[in-house]
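task queued by scheduler; priority normal; single chain, no ligands, no partner chains; default sampling; output format set to structure tokens
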Amino acid sequence: MKKLTNRLNLVFLFLFFLVSCGKEIQGNYSALVEGKEVTLQFKEGNQVLVEGYFPVGLTGDWVEEKTFGDPMIWISVDGPEEKPFRLRFELKPVGENFQLTGIKARPLGKGTKLIPVKIEGTPIFKQNFKTSDQSK
């Protein structure tokens, strides 16, 4: 009986870790956001490069957020030193693509809150298969 219990515990742990593994995203996704061609380059790990929204590329991290119902992808990037701010892109997975549901921004500093940035429409980030090196 004890061996059976141990085996069931191992099976349970294996299934738990299999189910709880997060989303793995890699590649480039592009969309037209407020008249700007914005590209998200998902790199190994949870790093992402955002190009086109700000005059220089911004590097940050992404997380899978499940707190508010449907799973979302949140990308957080910091602005350059000369203009310190934080941006968060909120994406909803739609098949193999991502729908931009919101952008929030705030200046860096103690006690500042993320403020929603008004966006027109619902841009869809679609995977493209060219890298930024190929587009130059």
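post-processing summary
- The helical segments are 2-20, 132-135.
- The two ends are 65 Å apart (CA to CA).
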